[in-house]
Prior knowledge:
Layout lengths: L8 E4 L8 H22 L9 H4 L3 H11 L9 E4 L2 E6 L2 E7 L14 E5 L4 H12 L3 E6 L4 H7 L5 E5 L6 H14 L5 E4 L22 H24 L5 H9 L4 H4 L5 E4 L9 H6 L10 H13 L8 E5 L2 E4 L17 H25 L2
Helix pairs in contact: 1-3, 4-11
Protein name: NAD(P)-binding protein
GO molecular function, one term: 2,4-dienoyl-CoA reductase (NADPH) activity
Keywords: Oxidoreductase
Amino acid sequence: MSTESLIRVTVLVNRKPGTTEEEFSKYWAYKHGPLATDWLKRNGIIKYVQDFEAAFLDPYYQEVIQPDEKELIDMESIAVTIGVEYVVIEEGEIVERHARNTMNSIDIPLKDKIILITGGASGIGLCLTKQSHAAGARVLVADLRTTPEFDSFAAGKSNILYVQSDVSHWPDFLKLFDACEKKWNDVPDAYGICAGLFEPSFSNFWDDPEEEKGYKQVDVNVSHPIKLTRLAIKKSLGRGKRASHAIVGFVKSMKDSEPLTGVKITTICPGLVNTPLVTLDKREQYSFHENKALTPHSVAKNMLELIQKKEYGCGTVLELSKAGTRVVPEWNISPPSAEGTGQNEVELAAGLEALLAPIQATLAREKAAKL
């Protein structure tokens, strides 16, 4: 057999309920593994993709292999990856075909689960909405308003529910949970907290326009994730489910809480992302260039991995930059690399001047007013 004709076959299964990991491993290594491998070779499955489906109709598979599989495998969980194709098998027959799943080691799949996404109608949130739907999830989208792109995508999809809400108004959270229980008779299994503000003119530390109700930006970017996390724990415990610096500190402080709550809390820290939050004035102030920014799609993809992969435990802070990903350690944290910004040191220095310019102008005005 030439190397050109080799095709990778990956089988993903769950253990049969009641089977321990040790029992499964021994049975697979010494009994079922050699039996199945010999059968695969004889039927040419790793050589010819077109033989794959026919091989499962082989009498030897039906009489010997499949009964043996039932001794240790949850037969409803079998999924197989062959080359660039991903298939699902039920009772020896291929019942679904998909493009190959590019995510590795999915430990907690979102298929048939409910995910609540705040800010899910635009930017990173919309990308997460699309990718969660593609993963087979039921998606509850919370946002102030929809967008044409969201409306077009969600049209006719019964497993996407939009609820108009303001995440800075806490009673709206209860409205979300009520809508979820009314639609699906359950509460969310996962949460994608994407709603945020990026130094808007109506809520800005340096311009300081707010005088009565506090900082809206803090309400949205800090208070909303913390409050929703608390509600998620409360709601999940009630149903028996096991599922900025302020936010980084909060997530890290919760790293030991999962055994108590059954809820995994993580966060992602991307660099500058090309979303509608980057308005024209922000592009100038933050030296924004599309070819040097992250895409909402890449951020959403890594958020899904945070949710679904066991390697990212409770308290994980995942940094995402042009250089790739990094789990931010608890102590002795080195700064992000310059390469991760897509800019060289000269560009970074010029960018710092542009970043400080509006702040310096505000301070100059305030100083002049007192003279």
